[in-house]
Amino acid sequence: MDQKTIDIIKATVPVLEEKGNEITKAFYKHLFSEHPELNHVFNQTHQKEGKQPRALAKLVYQAAAHIDRLEELLPAVKVVAHKHRSIGIKPEQYPIVGEHLLWAIKHVLGDQATDEIMKAWETAYGVIADAFIQLENELREDVKENNGWNDYMPFIIDKKVKESDVITSFYLKPANGQALPEYLPGQYISLKLNIPGEAYTHIRQYSLSDAPGKNYFRISVKREDEKAMYPEGVVSHYLHESMKEGDRMFVSAPAGDFTLDMSSYQPLVFISGGVGQTPLMSMLKTVIEKQPERPITWIHAAKNGNCHAFKEEVKKAAKKHKNLKTFICYNDPSSDDLEKKDIKKVGYIDEQWLSEIIEYRHASYYFCGPKPFMAAIYKILKQWEINDTDIHYEFFGPQDELLEEQAITV
């Protein structure tokens, strides 16, 4: 891009900050009216709740603000690119998106969107789209080279195991018997489901909760609340209540850049809340297997023992590996929980407790859980002046929600 185009784009930053949500809402409405088939790709729950428009507005704003230094957005771009590859976004869909995004900008801004401004945004979108396409093509090539597949492949539920009152594990095997690709501990897969009574296909991402190298993928799914008008849990309820051993579903190859650094022997601290422990379980089992001497602190928070998945699995691992220290926090323990004396804290994880139980302050921290939980953990780690390179987290859903929760910059 020439300097004039850059200057024009940067001049639109204030209006994008003000009108971004209005623009993206108009964009999605227009896009789906002209291309209803794309309803099968986008998360309809996030659409109805307004999460996806807000996330796109944030991305457009960030792109405009960083148009002269787009490389600073690379970490955020990688997160999105992995998801795009996983759910099956194709290069030929980018011009369609660009056409409707430019229409929405013009529609909302009216006479403010001069021909000069629209031409500059057309150029800028082309540059941004090319960056995504190039990265996603590289990811697709990596998948093929790793015995994987692009798009989706049929899998069979080989085993269904109840882990707690709210979490069930699904052991998935390829329907054609194909060997599974290696994946990095912490990665996820996408499921594509056609649910009876639902107008559109549903696609959801679930972390792999076991170590790589098995002849199955294991995902562990929390049954979400069904009270909302359009429940976030439409897929989780279907999986829990309707899918049985032997049933088929369509699965993407593993994706995601929230992965364990196996090149380091730095002490590890895993901190999870609820079902957020699923990617950390994959990491824990991998490091125990491949780096048994590496110090590990495992900290998990749950409501109580009835909601606590993998408790016995982790306890068994801790008995075998002296370098694994485990700590449990319940905010609403039952009388049975208190009698067993497995829990180390009643209430919520806080800075004082963490400072007491974490032996190696200068460690690599990996955490995952509900949005407020993650924001609180991040705040503590920043107060401890932990290097950004040692802070790793996973967040499903539009990324900007977590970033805004604690003003985390990417």
TrEMBL record:
Q: Which Pfam families match?
A: FAD_binding_6, Globin, NAD_binding_1
Please give the name of this protein: Flavohemoprotein
Which family is this protein grouped under? In the C-terminal section; belongs to the flavoprotein pyridine nucleotide cytochrome reductase family.
Q: According to the UniProt record, what class of enzyme is this?
A: oxidoreductase
State the reactions this protein catalyses: 2 nitric oxide + NADH + 2 O2 = 2 nitrate + NAD(+) + H(+); 2 nitric oxide + NADPH + 2 O2 = 2 nitrate + NADP(+) + H(+)
Q: What is its EC number?
A: 1.14.12.17
> What is the organism of origin for this protein?
Scopulibacillus daqui
Domain FAD-binding FR-type positions: 150-261
Give the site residues for Influences the redox potential of the prosthetic heme and FAD groups: K83, E394
